[in-house]
């Protein structure tokens, strides 16, 4: 079994002292249990706290765990309206600790992993949702040429590209036959909308991939940019709406069955209207396709997480095994959206 829980702090400290201005060791490291893809560590050092994200060691699916892309996009966004952590240094020499990694600032803030946002007032809860909408719109309004990201994703239809990519990755990590997933893989390519936009997309935009100020609703940083690319903005929006259809609680992290009005949480329709207003849009037709795609892609991602757990190189093996059992639920949700 390949160990993703430990970090060679001496090797990291030696490399950072040689490659990062002002850095001084030694390092103590604490692994975060948040996230399933790229192991993340808080580094405490004499020169302050930092965060390190690395590729998992071991054999990986092609194009997955692209920490170099995470580093590039967040560096490019430093002077935009999108809040991101400051990037310090990228190491692309796997001989240092066994895989590529980068180091960024440790942003102070609170991480919210429950979209019901307990223990705050309705007014603050509504303000947090408004901020989520503002930041999502800001991501999609980034001038990709001005920030040097026009080549951050290939040309061609985003959904055609993504469906092909995630179908291949799903098949590469498939552990059992799921009829609903097979049906989605057939339905999606035949129903791609004729609306090929090119915008920066985050790829996994949701409340638990954000840090908020400790004493207010403002977003301090958007995290986890591994799946970001140049693509279709409605994929991000649909991914968020898809997540809210999941059961509430630590695993589902959704809003299914929740009385949103009583908590000050907008409905899907209200959130889409807020988003359209922020971007100057009159509406978004064909939302069923985008939501079906979001379910499909998340199912494929979780299948990969599950396969890594079986292979022994998941970031959080216990949670990965639990998540893997939910792939049929995502497949069924996608098929329901497709026909709804």
Report on the architecture of this protein:
The chain is globular and about 55 Å long. It is built from eleven helices and ten strands. Helix 3 (about 120-140) packs across helix 8 and helix 9 packs across helix 10 (about 315-325). About 40% of the residues lie in helices and about 10% in strands. The chain has about 350 residues and is an alpha+beta fold. The strands form three sheets. Strands 1-2-3-5-4 form a five-stranded antiparallel sheet, with helices on both faces. A three-stranded antiparallel sheet has the order 6-8-9, covered by helices on one side. The mean pLDDT is about 90. The chain has two domains: about 10-105, Phosphorylase Kinase, domain 1, CATH 3.30.200; about 110-340, Aminoglycoside 3'-phosphotransferase, Chain: A, domain 2. It holds the Pfam family APH.
Write the layout of secondary structure elements.
Blueprint: H1 9-19, E1 28-31, E2 40-45, E3 48-54, H2 67-76, E4 87-91, E5 101-105, E6 110-111, H3 122-140, H4 158-173, H5 179-187, E7 199-201, E8 210-212, E9 219-222, E10 229-231, H6 233-244, H7 260-263, H8 268-279, H9 287-311, H10 317-324, H11 327-338
Antiparallel strand pairs: 1-2, 2-3, 3-5, 4-5, 6-8, 7-10, 8-9
Helix pairs in contact: 3-8, 4-9, 5-11, 6-9, 9-10, 9-11
InterPro entries: ACAD10-like (IPR052898), ACAD10_11_N (IPR041726), Aminoglycoside_PTrfase (IPR002575), Kinase-like_dom_sf (IPR011009)
Protein name: Phosphotransferase family protein
Organism: Maritimibacter alkaliphilus HTCC2654
């Amino acid at each position: 079994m390949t160990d993703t829980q430990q970090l060679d702090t001496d090797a990291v400290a030696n490399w950072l002292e040689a490659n990062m201005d002002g850095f001084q060791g030694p390092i103590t490291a604490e692994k975060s249990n948040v996230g399933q893809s790229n192991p993340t560590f808080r580094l405490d050092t004499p020169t302050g706290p930092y965060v390190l994200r690395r590729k998992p060691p071991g054999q990986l699916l092609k194009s997955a765990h692209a920490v170099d892309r995470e580093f590039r996009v967040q560096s490019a966004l430093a002077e935009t309206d999108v809040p991101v952590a400051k990037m310090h240094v990228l190491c692309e020499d796997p001989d240092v600790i066994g895989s590529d990694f980068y180091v960024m600032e440790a942003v102070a803030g609170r991480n919210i992993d429950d979209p019901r946002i307990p223990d705050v007032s309705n007014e603050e809860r509504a303000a947090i949702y408004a901020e989520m909408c503002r930041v999502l719109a800001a991501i999609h309004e980034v001038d990709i040429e001005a920030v040097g990201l026009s080549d951050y994703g290939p040309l061609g239809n985003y959904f055609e590209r993504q469906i092909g990519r995630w179908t291949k990755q799903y098949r590469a990590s498939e552990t059992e036959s799921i009829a609903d997933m097979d049906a989605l893989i057939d339905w999606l390519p035949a129903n791609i909308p004729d609306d090929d936009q090119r915008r920066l997309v985050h790829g996994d935009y949701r409340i638990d991939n954000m840090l908020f100020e400790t004493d207010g609703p403002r977003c301090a940083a958007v995290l986890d940019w591994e799946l970001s690319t140049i693509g279709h903005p409605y994929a991000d929006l649909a991914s968020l709406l898809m997540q809210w259809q999941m059961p509430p609680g630590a695993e589902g992290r959704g809003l299914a069955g929740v009385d949103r009005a009583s908590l000050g949480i907008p409905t899907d329709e209200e959130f889409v209207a807020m988003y359209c207003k922020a971007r100057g849009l009159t509406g978004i037709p064909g939302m069923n396709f985008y939501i079906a795609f979001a379910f499909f892609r998340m199912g494929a991602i979780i299948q990969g997480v599950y396969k890594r757990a079986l292979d022994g190189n998941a970031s959080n093996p216990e949670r990965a095994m639990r998540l893997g059992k939910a792939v049929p639920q995502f497949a069924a949700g996608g098929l329901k959206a497709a026909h709804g």
